[in-house]
Design brief:
UDP N-Acetylglucosamine Acyltransferase, domain 1; 225 residues; alpha/beta
């Protein structure tokens, strides 16, 4: 089993001595910060499973109600503030080696399931909401300001908008998928392995594997070579 010395030596070889010192000292400062230490204890206490070597570099607003479950894998790097809410027998799973940037929101409710596959990167200001099921395969790149939501409201007249029924359908995102800045993925779609979704696109239909899709609504413009 690799120890701290081994990890430090690898970091020096990869990043150099200067950057390694910044990383080590920064991590030590985070662990000594009373506010972050308290938040880390609170996150561990509210997780069904909290993996090894999880790095919390900001405040995680975790709220677990009504039999909700949160599972965080090993070597997860949460690089800033994160909103993590789960309720109504729902579940959030963050796989091993995931990296989550600042100001991300992950919510699950009403028996929903939200799963990030191993080695997934999630960029700043991204929102993922699940009332049904959202799954992302391993190795994905979710850029900043992306919105992935598996539910919306009915549009019938005669009621207030906030009183209309919720309509939901699962979202399945394959492995090694890139969703570029500002894209939206809506309910009931399947994005195949290796696909690329262009910046600002709105995905309303299935995207086949290794396709590059863009536009509103997103359409396949070419295939990856």
């Amino acid at each position: 089993m690799e120890g701290a010395v081994g990890r430090t030596e690898k970091s020096i070889k990869k990043h150099g001595m200067g950057k390694t010192l910044k990383l080590v000292l920064g991590e030590a400062a985070n662990r000594l910060n009373p506010s972050l230490a308290w938040n880390r204890w609170r996150v561990r206490r509210n997780c069904t499973k909290f993996g090894k070597n999880v790095k919390l570099r900001g405040r995680v607003d975790i709220r677990v109600f009504d039999r909700g479950k949160v599972i965080i894998g090993n070597n997860v790097d949460i690089d800033g503030d994160l909103e993590l809410w789960v309720r109504d027998n729902a579940k959030i799973v963050i796989g091993d080696n995931c990296h989550i940037e600042n100001f991300v929101r992950l919510n699950a409710a009403l028996n929903g399931s939200l799963e990030l596959g191993a080695n997934t990167y999630v960029g700043k200001f991204t929102i993922v909401n699940s009332w049904d099921r959202v799954t992302m395969g391993p190795g994905g790149l979710i850029s900043g300001n992306v919105m992935i939501i598996d539910a919306d409201h009915d549009t019938k007249r005669g009621k207030l908008m906030n009183e209309l029924d919720v309509k939901k359908a699962p979202i399945e995102i394959g492995k090694n998928v890139w969703i570029a800045w500002g894209a939206a993925v809506l309910k009931g779609v399947k994005i195949g392995d290796g696909a690329v979704i262009g910046a600002g696109s709105v995905v309303t239909r299935n995207i086949k594997p290794y396709a590059i899709a863009a536009g509103v609504p997103a359409r396949v413009i070419k295939m990856r070579r």
